[in-house]
Amino acid sequence: MEHVHNVSEFILLGLSQDQELEKVFFVLFLFFYILIVFGNLLIIVTIKNSQNLNSPMYFFLVYLSFLDLSYSSVTAPKLIADMLVKRKVISFSGCMAQLFLMHFLSCTEVFILTVMAYDRYIAICKPLHYTTIMSKHVCNRMVVASWVGGFIHSITQTLLTFQLPFCGPNVIDHYFCDVYPLLKLACTDVHIVGILVVANSGMISIVCFFVLFVSYVVILVSLRTHSSEGRIKALSTCASHIVVVVLFFGPCMFIYLRPSITFSEDKMVSVFYTIIVPMLNPLIYTLRNEEVKSAMKKLWSRKLSLDRKQKISWVE
């Protein structure tokens, strides 16, 4: 297929065409993004500086927080900046880069969440073999596999979109470059490409969701044989994972597990998994996890103690 890219830039319609409403959104989403950056960095720094948080669960949680911070940063800063201007523009290459990074990072997160569910399954259902099965080497390989899987998914989506001819119009009814809004602008029949995009995203979503569902069903069934204290602790940890999975997978499956058509609700649903979920994840994992809260308190106490010593040293 001949590439016809007469379009050098795309115009984004954003979340709203109401300028007064956009000013409200600017303040709101700027506040959300600050929480995303602060919350996820806090989790990463806490786990990296705590000797007690060295289990595979926290190893994966660092990557989850990094991914939340990264993929929200692909869309949120542009969204926030665009709320201050009338004409929201993104270059063709910038659009393709945003599409690639968004799918790369979010798909990697899907795999990391799946790996975390497997980790909880081994920890609860096979505790005697946990350290052997979930060795550092195995955990590293799982993370690498997640990154590779995310890259393969994303490069496929991006190449399928990039090879389409875009000869105008160039107005995207969204606040970032995604596959379905771009397919609407291609000046050719995109039926086959649409099927391939859905098959690519759908297969990953369904397989991962099935693995997650089975893992947590088996975990919940096996908890009946645990002590009351062990059951409460395991349920607390699993509840956090389940909430994150539902919050992340629900909107993603609504967007990508359907024919290549767009709905007016898509933008608000996208806001949920690109901004709201990355903001909520640190709260979910800290408020429900005593070990993380304790490590944060120790880290804060250590910092205050160090600051106090430095002040005394400076005075002397």
Automatic annotation (TrEMBL):
A GO MF label: olfactory receptor activity
What keywords is this UniProt entry annotated with? Cell membrane, G-protein coupled receptor, Membrane, Olfaction, Receptor, Sensory transduction, Transducer, Transmembrane, Transmembrane helix
Tagged with keyword Lyase = no
Q: Where, subcellularly, is it found?
A: Cell membrane; Membrane
Of the GO CC terms on this record, one is: plasma membrane
Membrane-spanning segments: 24-45, 57-76, 96-118, 138-156, 190-223, 235-257, 269-287
- A Pfam family name for this chain? 7tm_4
Q: What is this protein called?
A: Olfactory receptor
Which family does the record claim for this protein? Belongs to the G-protein coupled receptor 1 family.
Which SUPFAM superfamilies does the record associate with it? Answer: Family A G protein-coupled receptor-like
Q: Does the keyword Ribosomal protein apply?
A: no
Q: How does it sit in the membrane?
A: Multi-pass membrane protein
Q: Where is the G-protein coupled receptors family 1 profile domain?
A: 39-285
| Alphabetical list of InterPro entries matching this protein | GPCR_Rhodpsn, GPCR_Rhodpsn_7TM, Olfact_rcpt, Olfactory_Receptors
